[in-house]
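User: Okay, second chain of the day. Same drill as before: sequence in, structure tokens out.
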Amino acid sequence: MARVYYNKLIRDKVPAKIKDKGSDLETKVLSDQEFEEELVKKVLEEATELTKASSREELVSELGDVIDVLDEVRVLKNISDEELSAAREESNARKGGFKERIFLIWSSDDNYKKDK
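Assistant: Same drill. Structure tokens below.
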């Protein structure tokens, strides 16, 4: 059977599911630094999957995955719910939310992204 190389962080029960199908696999346990790096990559992977959801059911499932990965980052970095809530409130106070659905088409180069 041909090998497919994934080289990515996976959920804990995935190796057993692969073995249950009669397939072989190779895994390793990541160091703390490797885990942190791969977890951040996983945020992007899961967010990308969210954009591909074609039904409400898929959207809910993918959103759950995004939240799971973000929560794992929060735990890894020892960020409390209170800290996160305060950061969100500060960001909303400074930049606003998304209720007005504003889509930026273009802007003069005023270093907007650097100012955050």
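Helices lie at 14-20, 32-51, 56-76, 81-95, 112-115.

User: Thanks, on to the next one.
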